[in-house]
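Hi R.,

Here's the chain you asked about this morning:
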Amino acid sequence: MELSVYNKSGEDTGRKVQLNEKIYSVEPNDHAIYLDVKQYMANNRQGTHKSKERGDINGSTRKVKKQKGTGTARMGSIKSPVLRGGGRAFGPRPRDYSFKLNKKVKVLARKSALTYKALDNNIIVLEDFSFDKPKTKDFVAVKNNLKIADKKSLLVLSEPNNNIYLSTRNLQSDKVVLVSELTTYDILNASVLVVAESSIDVLEKNFSN
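And the predicted structure, written out as tokens:
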């Protein structure tokens, strides 16, 4: 699959890049995508949820009423979960939601996500560029030139560029990542994948190992 290389003015440079079929034309595996996205979202969970159980409630441990003879159920202290103000029964506790996933599954998931983007013609190869200074208006102009102003985009760079990163930080619909940070979730969450020209070779090198 061949794609044209565009510059930040939205003009075709006349150059072409060949996308590796082993990365952008594989048989998509939806279950691998599901597992990788599930791990990504699980690893981002803080897991700090906590409710007070009866042992965490301040109050007397005196028995509320006698054990027998009242005609009602037996009752312990006022910390009981059945009483208002008592502790919660089986409430959430802090826990770690992260889990491990086989590296080959994660690579397959990323290749599957890239294949879906390629099949939908939602990959744009952009000539390597930079800004003189951080300015959101400049990045918005690049999106307008590429005719993707109304779409959620993911820009993939081969190396860090602070000016580009700071120019997109205020835009909720856009994100900039390095090739090493590319995740299945980010690929699928974006409507258009904008790949810097130098990132094509890096992507191929990372996924061919």
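Residues 56 and 87 are 7 Å apart (CA to CA).

Let me know if you need anything else.
M.
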